[in-house]
Amino acid sequence: MFPKETYIRRRAALREKLKGEKGIVVFLGNVEAPAQYRDNCYKFRQDSCWLYYFGIDEPRWAAVLDLESGRETLYADDVSISDIIWMGPQPSVRSVAESVGVAQSEPYCKLDWAVSQALVQRRPVHTVPASRYYQTLKLQSLGIEKPSEALVRAIVSMRLVKEPEEIELLDAAARLGQKMHTVARRGIRLGRREQEIVGEMEGVTLSEGWGVSFATILTQHGEIFHNHGHGGLLEPGRLLVVDAGAESNEHYASDFTRTYPTSGRYTPRQRAVYQLVYDCHELAFSLTRPGTAYRDVHLAVAERMLLGLKDLGLVQGDPAELAAAGIAGLFMPHGLGHNMGLDVHDMEDLGEDLVGYDPDQTRSPQLGLGSLRMARRLVPGNVITDEPGIYFIPALIEQWKVEGKDKGCVNYGKLAEYYDFGGIRLEDDVLVTPDGARRLGGERLPASPDEVEAAMAADKENK
Ligand code: GLY
Questions:
Q1: What distance in angstroms lies between residue 141's CA and the mean position of ligand 1's atoms?
Q2: Same structural domain, 252 and 287
Q3: Residue 214: CB within 6 Å of ligand 1?
Q4: Does ligand 1 come within 6 angstroms of the Cβ of 255?
Q5: Are 54 and 196 within one domain?
């Protein structure tokens, strides 16, 4: 947790941003979620908006901020003797409230009364969209019908710009993520089961941090984006996509991707595609600076990718025109990156477009660009991922061929030779600085094809 002054300052800034609004703001922390029966719960993960404004990392807390009187009230229950038997002594609600700078506290059940009073008086009740089923049910039972766009916009404007103490924690989460990735790379040996490497790399963040920031992707089928099966044995000549990150004990995320040759050396065909993804990755970073829309960085990467794919004989035509026509989506059907912070896809539960798009930007319907989660003009303090990739997805290629979606730009005959290729993605975490950008974390993970092969050769010698 940060010092209480941080939470007091953030809540004051939020009230200032909502100066023109009336009524109350209701924040719901998360509650325990049973895995099967009541007393066997999933590992508790607090709501990120709650963490940002209150920091209390315990279940079943709520708060009301009165926008007109400025009064702040926390709602939670002191433990009973039966709780103490199972959990040991716990700090009082009053002392926890004091530790985050809130003077008033009430039992949890009084939240219903506070909200019903506001509704009876026809005062607006502002909430964020529910991110868990509990919140959906609780908001329904409180009679709160829809989230408040004014509140969401105010929160997004604050959380999009990371404070110096958040950047320190993001750097630490990135270093932990890099350590996970180094352990994964060192674990690559033909014949090993993917799951063994997953276990080793996740052990790193479990022993030093909260755990993983999302379900680890470690697969020889990189063309399947969220492939969470880890049953494969490492086969010679394949590509292994490792997309994983750490969540620190303070709940800040990291998210890195590297793609390794299972045999330690890329084949000439793999190297050519890898080099192109690497060039796109370097281009994206070089263009990342304040004032530039991340949407334009995505488009520049798309054009660079199409130039390289043209050199490989896979597409034909002017790369700029191909990019404008959305042809890059066939090869990279995802966006260049997303915001990162307390969540690995930061704040997307608040509404992807409100978070990732400036008010004058609209989301493209094109495949790939349409999945871009962060399109905004960048400002210092933004933390984003930069993750270009090239994938050969046979079902998608076949669909485009049948439907003629490429309007004759794609060389399907040549592309058929890549159906067994898989995919390649590279990803780093990037902080926008006043004069450009820097990558978060410690020493950068090997990224160019030569760096990756050299690191894998050194790993082998050290085994
Ligand atoms: N790195 C995983 C994701 O962005 O979904």
A1: 34
A2: yes
A3: yes
A4: yes
A5: no
Question: Are both 169 and 122 inside the same structural domain?
Answer: no
Q: What's the pTM value of the predicted model, to 2 decimals?
A: 0.97
Query: How high is the pLDDT of residue 409?
Result: 97
- Could you tell me if the CB of 108 is within 6 A of ligand 1? no
pLDDT, one tens digit per residue, over 410-422 is 999 999 999 999 9
Hey, which of 212, 242, 385, 426 would you mutate to test ligand 1's pocket, going by the most ligand atoms within 8 Å of its Cβ?
385
Residue type, 41: C
Give the chain's domain count.
Answer: 2
Looking at 98, 133, 159, which one is the last position of a domain?
159
Å from CA of 88 to ligand 1 middle = 38
323-377, pLDDT tens digit by residue? 999 999 999 999 999 999 999 999 999 999 999 999 999 999 999 999 999 999 9
How far, in Å, is the centroid of ligand 1 from the Cα of 257? 9
- Domain residues for 278? 164-462
How many angstroms is it from 33 CA to the middle of ligand 1?
A: 24
On whether the CB atoms of residues 257 and 281 are closer than 8 A, the answer is no
Which residue has the least CA distance to atom 2 on ligand 1? 243
Domain boundary among 105, 139, 159: 159
Q: Is 386 in the pocket of ligand 1 (CB under 6 A)?
A: no
Are residue 215 and residue 273 in the same domain, yes or no? yes
Q: Is 243 a pocket residue for ligand 1 (Cβ < 6 Å)?
A: yes
Quick one: 183 and 217 in the same domain?
A: yes
CATH number of the domain residue 97 falls in = 3.40.350.10
The ligand 1 atom nearest the CA atom of 257:
1
> Which is it for strands 72-75 and 104-106: parallel, antiparallel or unpaired?
parallel
- 337 and 231 inside one domain: yes
Residue 410's closest CA among 402, 418, 401? Answer: 401
CATH number of the domain where residue 391 is located: 3.90.230.10
Q: What average pLDDT score do residues 291-312 get?
A: 98
The rounded distance, in Å, linking the Cα atoms of 326 and 329 is: 6
Sequence-separated (6 or more) residues with CB below 8 Å from residue 422 = 220, 221, 222, 223, 238, 239, 241, 391, 392
Say if residue 97 is in the same domain as residue 190: no
- Ligand 1 atom nearest to CA at 255: 1
Produce one character per residue of 130-168: b if its CB has 16 or more CB atoms within 10 Å, e if not: bbeebbeebbeebebeebbeebbbbbbeebbebeeebbe
Does 364 share its domain with 295?
yes
pLDDT per residue as tens digits for the range 71-120 = 999 999 999 999 999 999 999 999 999 999 999 999 999 999 999 999 99
Q: How far is CA 343 from the centre of its chain?
A: 5
